């Protein structure tokens, strides 16, 4: 340890860029809060069956005793039927447990959003690195493909594809369809970064030293692009979650009875006058998740990719 | 410049044909037989074959696609014998559902979607840019914090959530606004605006939040440039520095996303239109999907793609006007 000014965080001298980034992130309150929210929802999604069995209801189980048949199937009790039995109340008419449905909905929503993000990032990084490093025809072809993909009216196209395909696994299809249109964004970021890296001295040195393209790409270029990619990835996750919710909201996403947040919100709209809690609960979950990922992405971008984005 | 525009226009046409080819293949090959759907339940084999010939479905796929593309540019004659039908330029085919030309259907609905998109765009540019620039000029103050927290929260609200809140707050509870019903601008501009105000707001909240975030970062970056310091040092009033020197350069990145956003919305904001019951292209599209009306689906997709591509081209050309460093 060398002499540090008293206000600076305790970072050992000579620490690497990743350690510095981590120390910088740790100082931000917004990072801690948003990480906590993200972790909460991820745990909720991962432990959905366990959590709903703790609550005592499965997501597709009807409970006619929790709704009032004489009031059009209104939940019995205050705030949409919140009670010791149903922690977040019940759905009107069917009496299905909202806690179980929200938790299982988290699983579907986050699974689709995160897998689609993974596809987008892998495909985008591969395409971007190839276009940037090899240049020439590879670059021209890949760049054209990016242009065409970005000109697709993606939401309209996604809705159309989701409603045309009938007998396929909805979750898989949705992941693929959402992933299909996201990769050019990542590819552009990676391509730009690769272009600026490929003629640095250390890359030339590696080339002179006899490294092949594969080794240069994975050992020298990839680590250099990973910072911006991580920041960009976190920032596209909220968009992916919102897209999944929008498709499910429009009724072309996952099919009932499988719950998803967007679909629950769509169903609750019919009851927003009589049972507002039914609308509020899935909406709050969606809002919090999207917000937390956005805040986390903002912080990661500030730290890992200081040149693009906010000063 | 002219050479550049010419090259870009060729590129635009190429991109549109590629999109048309992909869309055509997916929507004409994947789903169930449109001829069978048109023929109904009690359909004889001969009648089915006749309908297929009439619709051109007996041709190989590339032939159907070539006919479709030539039809757009020159119009074409469909069917044969007594069922001959001339589809005038620009021919996007006929709706399976009500046998109207797809082009007429699109042009019928376009004013609604365009009213929605343009009005919302004006609102979100006003709100978003003023919030973003204010925050940038007062960087790290309470105003900046409040505006940016508001923006990040608003950007996380799905448009259907905002819409429901607005309907609940302004229509149901306060009774301030009518439930939106589309009134053409030509009939009564005042009613047109008051009816569309709510959908405009619903869309604008989301986009304004994103634009506020973007324009803040872009303005902060610009205001740190040396030429801004020069402008200040030579004694220009702050207002001139911000408006003439800062905004002009700071807004160029915003122009790019604005082109994409507006282009995407012109051909229908599916969710907003369906929540507010506006008879725009988004609704047309959604209806066509549920009845399997492929010509309409294809038409909407192509129209939307055209808007996006043309908006991008317009933005690139505007760049040369806004940013003196850009030359073609």
UniProtKB/TrEMBL annotation, chain A:
Lineage: superkingdom: Bacteria
UniProt keyword terms in alphabetical order: Cell membrane, Membrane, Transmembrane, Transmembrane helix, Transport
Keyword Transmembrane helix: yes
ABC transmembrane type-1 domain span: 106-297
Keyword Iron-sulfur tagged: no
One Gene Ontology cellular component annotation held by this UniProt entry: plasma membrane
Main location: membrane
Gene Ontology biological-process entries: transmembrane transport
Cell compartments where the protein resides: Cell membrane
Stated family: Belongs to the binding-protein-dependent transport system permease family.
Name of the featured protein: Peptide/nickel transport system permease protein
Species assigned in the record: Streptomyces olivoverticillatus
From TrEMBL, chain B:
Annotated keywords: Cell membrane, Membrane, Transmembrane, Transmembrane helix, Transport
Any GO BP annotation: transmembrane transport
Residue ranges of the TM segments: 9-30, 112-134, 146-171, 191-212, 254-276, 296-322
This protein's record includes keyword Lipoprotein: no
Localization annotation: Cell membrane
SUPFAM superfamilies recorded: MetI-like
Coiled-coil ranges per UniProt: none
Membrane topology: Multi-pass membrane protein
Any matching Pfam family: BPD_transp_1
Domain (ABC transmembrane type-1): residue spans on this chain: 110-319
Gene Ontology CC: plasma membrane
Major localization listed first in the record, in broad terms: membrane
Domain of life, source organism: Bacteria
Keyword Acetylation carried by entry: no
Protein family according to the UniProt entry: Belongs to the binding-protein-dependent transport system permease family.
Protein name: Peptide/nickel transport system permease protein
Organism: Streptomyces olivoverticillatus
């Amino acid at each position: 340890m060398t002499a540090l000014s008293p206000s600076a965080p305790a970072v050992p001298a000579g620490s690497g860029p990743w350690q510095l980034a981590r120390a910088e992130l740790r100082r931000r309150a917004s990072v801690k809060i948003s990480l906590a929210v993200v972790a909460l929802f991820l745990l909720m999604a991962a432990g959905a069956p366990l959590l709903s069995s703790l609550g005592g209801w499965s997501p597709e189980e009807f409970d006619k005793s929790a709704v009032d048949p004489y009031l059009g199937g209104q939940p019995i009790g205050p705030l949409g039927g919140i009670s010791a039995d149903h922690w977040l109340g019940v759905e009107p008419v069917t009496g299905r447990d909202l806690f179980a449905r929200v938790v299982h909905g988290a699983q579907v929503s986050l699974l689709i959003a995160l897998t689609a993000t993974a596809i987008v990032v892998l495909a985008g990084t591969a395409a971007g690195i190839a276009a940037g490093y090899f240049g020439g025809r590879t670059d021209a072809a890949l760049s054209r493909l990016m242009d065409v993909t970005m000109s697709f009216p993606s939401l309209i196209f996604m809705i159309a594809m989701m409603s045309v395909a009938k007998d396929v696994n909805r979750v898989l299809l949705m992941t693929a369809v959402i992933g299909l249109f996201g990769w050019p964004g990542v590819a552009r970021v990676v391509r730009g970064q690769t272009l600026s890296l490929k003629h640095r001295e250390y890359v030339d040195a590696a080339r002179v030293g006899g490294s092949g393209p594969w080794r240069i790409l994975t050992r020298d270029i990839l680590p250099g692009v990973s910072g911006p990619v991580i920041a960009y990835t976190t920032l596209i996750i909220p968009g992916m979650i919102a897209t999944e919710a929008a498709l499910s909201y429009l009724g072309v996403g996952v099919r009932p009875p499988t719950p998803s947040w967007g679909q629950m919100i769509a169903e609750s709209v019919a009851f927003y006058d009589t049972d507002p809690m039914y609308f509020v609960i899935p909406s709050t979950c969606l809002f919090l998740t999207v917000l937390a990922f956005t805040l986390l992405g903002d912080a990661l971008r500030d730290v890992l990719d200081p040149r693009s984005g906010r000063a | 410049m002219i050479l550049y525009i010419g090259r870009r226009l060729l590129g635009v046409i190429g991109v549109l044909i590629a999109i048309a080819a992909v869309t055509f293949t997916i929507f004409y090959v994947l789903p169930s037989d449109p001829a069978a759907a048109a023929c109904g339940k009690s359909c004889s084999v001969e009648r089915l074959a006749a309908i297929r010939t009439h619709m051109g479905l007996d041709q190989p796929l590339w032939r159907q696609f070539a006919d479709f593309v030539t039809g757009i540019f020159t119009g074409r004659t469909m069917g044969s014998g007594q069922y001959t039908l001339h589809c005038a330029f620009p021919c996007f085919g006929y709706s399976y559902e009500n046998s109207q030309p797809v082009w007429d259907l699109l042009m019928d609905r376009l004013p609604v979607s365009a009213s929605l998109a343009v009005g919302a765009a004006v609102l979100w540019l006003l709100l978003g840019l003023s919030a973003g620039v204010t925050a940038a000029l007062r960087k790290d103050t309470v105003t900046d914090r409040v505006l940016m927290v508001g923006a990040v929260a608003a950007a996380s609200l799905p448009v259907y959530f905002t819409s429901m809140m607005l309907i609940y707050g302004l229509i149901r509870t306060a009774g301030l606004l009518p439930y939106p019903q589309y009134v053409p601008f030509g009939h009564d501009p005042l009613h047109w605006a008051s009816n569309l105000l709510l959908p405009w707001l619903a869309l604008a909240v989301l986009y304004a939040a994103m634009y506020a975030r973007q324009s803040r970062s872009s303005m902060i970056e610009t205001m740190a440039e040396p030429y801004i310091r020069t402008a200040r040092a030579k004694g220009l009033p702050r207002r001139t520095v911000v408006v003439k020197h800062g905004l002009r350069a700071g807004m160029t990145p915003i122009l790019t996303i604005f082109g994409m956003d507006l282009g995407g919305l012109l051909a229908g904001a599916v969710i907003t239109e369906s929540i507010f019951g506006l008879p725009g292209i988004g609704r047309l599209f959604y209806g066509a999907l549920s009845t399997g009306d492929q010509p309409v689906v294809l038409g909407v997709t192509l129209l939307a793609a055209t808007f996006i591509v043309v908006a991008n081209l317009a933005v690139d050309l505007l760049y040369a006007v806004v940013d003196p460093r850009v030359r073609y």
